[in-house]
């Protein structure tokens, strides 16, 4: 009975407290545009492909182990992407298919054992969609990396779910080769299945490129044969090594023997026709998606004068020179995994040779063996990589070829890596932001200059703080904008560049936290990377 008067007295107080007006949100900082005609135009946008491979193989960057929680997996992947942006890269080459498996959800193949252990729980998110979102908002391209004909990842052949799936569905496709299991490229249906898996990713995801490395037919393995010879006290063991033959007798009998080609030539043709079909069908779907291949650095011994070594043409049946000369790719990343002045001067001579063979003027972005920096054993110094990058720039500058390279691999650029190479690059060779080179053969039209106006309707930031000053950007014509290149000028005339996804219609005018740029120039990049004229505004 006595509680009622007390409750009645408390109710007005509660209502009054709940209805107390909140502190007013800080007003947006609305930029004022001033006459920019007296300002010098912004500097030309540097172009250089700066990428790194990200893979789970051999203790990789992501996923570093199977069975992580979704939060752990996302944090690790986000960390690698953020580091790529911090170092100054503009692209990542993300391993999404190490074998007959996937690091993205699909009904075609099982989850990769690098991400999901046998009997483990599938992730509750789409890793590839997550990677694309995280990379694109940081201005990074994502090229998805496939190993086409591996049935199982290295060292996991016996337990790989993907290989077991092939064995059940298409047992004739599966070839055991030494320690490996392989999908035989000699079967047209097998090539079609692998191609369709790649095209599914192109159809489903907003990727910037499709990337293949050099696993088509397997690199040769050998086996040791021990034989007892002699009699009595003279009996001894003789050891010899022989190359294991790739057992494609079935596909050769059914699809090769009647072609009139020699067996080796037929194998090369299987791979070349797969490459040609990949390029043709990716372009039929999304012409702007780049197709890149990273072959072994030596096409044939002696082709580059003075360079001898493994013969990729005859051992793994990769006629990579033909793919480049035919234009079945948009960039080639030959694996030049030697030091600048190392054995046979391979790095210098092979880079020159591949550029000489580039008759269709596509891009040649050498792969660098960055992982040797700080590695155990015969480690390279960080200058081994920085010298290569500087030398590659020098070779391309006089003839206006597009510069670029790909680091194998991202782990050596991480903050914890020996040699601090990532920090060295960020502070020197990558100190200035660069855009990936354009692919004008896929479309040379340049976008018009955008319309740029003040953006004054931004929502308050965290804690009610005023949002950073921003500009509204609208495409100047109907050509789709893939990226905005935003150049910001400080009061002393220095410029910084940011790359913003083209779907955005607002760009920040904040130079550094709390400081508004003195001027901003915005230009649009087409889906093939062609830049249009910039629109510059002066701010107050």
Describe the 3D structure.
The chain has 540 residues and is an alpha/beta fold. The protein folds into two domains: 26-44 and 443-539, Immunoglobulin-like (Sandwich), CATH 2.60.40.10; 48-437, Alpha-Beta Barrel (TIM Barrel). The chain is 27% helix and 20% strand. Strands 12-11-10-7-4-3-2-14-13 form a nine-stranded parallel β-sheet. The protein has a five-stranded antiparallel β-sheet with strand order 1-23-22-17-18, with no helix packed on it. A hairpin with a 6-residue loop joins strand 8 (222-229) and strand 9 (236-243). Helix 2 (70-87) packs parallel to helix 3 and helix 5 (188-204) packs parallel to helix 7. The N and C termini lie far apart (67 Å). 42% of the residues are buried.
Label the overall shape: elongated
Oligomer: single chain
Give the strand line-up of the largest sheet: 12-11-10-7-4-3-2-14-13
**Class from secondary-structure proportions:** alpha/beta
Count of DSSP E strands?
23
Low-confidence stretches: 1-20
CATH class of the largest domain: Alpha Beta
Q: Which strand-content bin applies to the residues? A: 15-25%
Count, helices: 12
Q: What does the average pLDDT come to?
A: 91
Q: How many separate domains?
A: 2
Report how far apart the termini are: 67 Å
- How many strands, what sense, and barrel or not for the largest sheet? 9 strands, parallel
């Amino acid at each position: 009975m006595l509680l009622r008067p007390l409750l009645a007295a408390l109710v007005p107080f509660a209502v009054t407290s709940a209805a107390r007006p909140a502190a007013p949100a800080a007003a947006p900082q609305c930029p004022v545009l001033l006459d920019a005609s007296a300002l010098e135009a912004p500097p030309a946008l540097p172009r250089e492909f700066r990428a790194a491979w990200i893979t789970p193989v051999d203790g990789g960057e992501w996923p570093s182990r199977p069975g992580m929680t979704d939060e752990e997996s996302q944090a690790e992947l986000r960390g690698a992407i953020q580091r790529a942006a911090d170092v100054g890269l503009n692209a990542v080459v993300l391993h999404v298919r190490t074998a007959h498996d996937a690091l993205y959800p699909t009904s075609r193949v099982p989850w990769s054992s690098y991400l999901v252990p046998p009997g483990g729980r599938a992730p509750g998110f789409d890793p590839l969609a997550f990677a694309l979102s995280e990379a694109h908002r940081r201005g990074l391209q994502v090229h998805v990396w496939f190993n086409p004909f591996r049935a199982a990842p290295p060292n996991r052949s016996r337990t790989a779910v993907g290989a077991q799936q092939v064995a059940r569905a298409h047992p004739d496709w599966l070839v055991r080769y030494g320690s490996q299991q392989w999908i035989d490229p000699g079967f047209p249906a097998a090539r079609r299945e692998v191609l369709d898996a790649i095209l599914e990713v192109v159809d489903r995801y907003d990727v910037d490129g499709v990337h293949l490395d050099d696993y088509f037919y397997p690199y040769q393995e050998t086996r040791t044969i021990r034989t007892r010879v002699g009699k009595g006290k003279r009996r001894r063991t003789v050891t010899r090594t022989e190359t294991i033959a790739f057992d494609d007798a079935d596909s050769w009998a059914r699809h090769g023997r009647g072609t009139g080609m020699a067996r080796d030539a037929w194998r090369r043709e299987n791979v070349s026709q797969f490459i040609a079909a990949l390029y043709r069908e990716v372009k039929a779907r999304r012409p702007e998606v780049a197709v890149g291949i990273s072959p072994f650095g030596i096409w044939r011994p002696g082709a580059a004068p003075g360079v001898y070594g493994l013969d990729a043409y005859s051992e793994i049946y990769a006629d990579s020179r033909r793919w480049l000369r035919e234009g079945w790719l948009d960039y080639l990343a030959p694996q030049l995994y030697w030091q600048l002045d190392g054995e046979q001067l391979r790095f210098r001579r092979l880079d020159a040779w591949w550029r000489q063979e580039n008759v269709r003027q596509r891009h040649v972005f050498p792969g660098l063996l960055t992982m040797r920096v700080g590695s155990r054993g015969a480690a390279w110094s960080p200058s081994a990589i920085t010298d290569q990058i500087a030398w590659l720039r020098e070779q391309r500058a006089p003839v206006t070829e597009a510069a670029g390279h790909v680091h194998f691999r991202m782990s050596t650029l991480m903050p914890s890596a020996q040699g601090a190479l990532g920090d060295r690059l960020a502070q020197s060779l990558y100190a200035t932001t660069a855009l990936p080179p354009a692919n004008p053969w896929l479309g040379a039209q340049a976008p018009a200059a955008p319309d740029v106006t003040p953006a004054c309707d931004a929502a308050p930031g965290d804690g009610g703080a005023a949002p950073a000053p921003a500009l509204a950007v609208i495409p100047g014509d109907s050509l789709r904008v893939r990226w905005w290149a935003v150049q910001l000028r400080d009061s002393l005339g220095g410029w910084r560049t940011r790359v913003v996804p083209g779907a955005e219609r607002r760009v920040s005018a904040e130079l550094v936290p709390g400081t508004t740029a003195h001027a901003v120039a915005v230009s649009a990049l087409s889906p093939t990377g062609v830049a249009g004229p910039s629109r510059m505004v002066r701010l107050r």
